[in-house]
Amino acid sequence: MPYHPITLPPIPDDTARTASTLYGEGNIYIRLGDHLNEFFYGIGPMKMEIHGESSAEASARYAMMTAFQYAEKLTDYQMVEAVRNRADLKYALHLPVNYPGFDSLALCEFHQRLFADPSNRLAYQELVDRLTEFGLLKTEKGQFLPVIQMLEAVCTGTRRQRVVEAMYQALEALTFTDSEWLRQTALPHWYVRYSRRKRMTFWPNGKGEWLTMTHEIGADIHYLLGEIDRSHQPKIASLREVQLLRGAFEEHFEVSTVQATNVHLIHWRRAGCASCTR
């Protein structure tokens, strides 16, 4: 079977002008954009149907974005926002300056397909190896960076952001619907933890802090949902944001009970992208 290399279109003139004005030649994404098609040479096309679109070119861009978000520790939503706002990333992806942007759920779907398809994952591993050698992806000297490790990191960060965003929205909806009930129910640390002004770190690290924080967030949600159930107030229980929070909790957490003390323990579901319902 003949090999047909992936070839993305040339860098648009408007992107080249903007990026050259804002960034120097030393910018890694500028250097990467100048050699983008070379990275895909000899690699079989990762052609997957994403959001109803089956395109090797689209899959190639999702593949690069996944590497970018791993390198910069960005969730899916943060990654598509970065592409929307940064000329160096548009340059790297050969996109026009006014490109309308990607859907974060489409990027998530690409990760799911990659998790589920060993042949595409093998092709992507070759691309990751080349990007590591290029210097985009950092590893300890001589270490190998498995694609599965990358996917688990980006998916975990994204899942955590979705949970926190659901909590944000539920608290805001409850504030407008019954601020007095929420004032009496809210735990003191919520005013700091769930402040929109406080930038929360979603990215997992090797020290385990993210897992501790995630369990604490899960406990907050479990407590809030329990208080809503005990209030017997259909007005707040039926809020769309509360229902979405309940769904997010059920998808990403498990609850076990210590029989002797009747204490509830909250556990983060360690599910892979392939089994994610998003």
Q: What this model shows, in words?
A:
- The protein is mainly alpha-helical and 278 residues long.
- It folds into two domains: 13-145, no CATH class; 156-275, no CATH class.
- The protein is 60% helix and 6% strand.
- It has helices at residues 13-22, 28-34, 36-39, 56-72, 76-85, 87-93, 104-116, 118-134, 147-185, 190-193, 209-231, 234-237, 240-252, and strands at 49-50, 53-54, 253-258, 263-268.
- The strands form two sheets. It has a two-stranded antiparallel sheet. Strands 3-4 form a two-stranded antiparallel sheet.
- A hairpin with a 2-residue loop joins strand 1 (49-50) and strand 2.
- The longest helix has 39 residues, at 147-185.
- It is elongated.
- The mean pLDDT is 87.
Short description:
This protein is mostly helical and 278 residues long.
Fill in the keyword field for this structure.
single chain, 278 residues, mainly alpha, two-stranded antiparallel ribbon, 4 strands
Radius of gyration: 22 Å
Strand content range: 5-15%
Going across the major beta sheet, what is the strand order?
1-2
* Anisotropy-based shape: elongated
User: Which ranges are low-confidence, i.e. pLDDT below 50, for 5 or more consecutive residues?
Assistant: none
Question: What is the SS-derived class?
Answer: mainly alpha
Count of discrete domains: 2
Give a count of the beta strands, DSSP E runs of length 2 or more: 4
Mean of residue pLDDT? Answer: 87
H/I helix tally: 13
Q: Biggest sheet, in brief? A: 2 strands, antiparallel
Distance between the termini: 35 Å
Order of helices and strands: HHHEEHHHHHHHHHHEE
What percent of residues adopt helix (DSSP H or I)? Answer: 55-70%
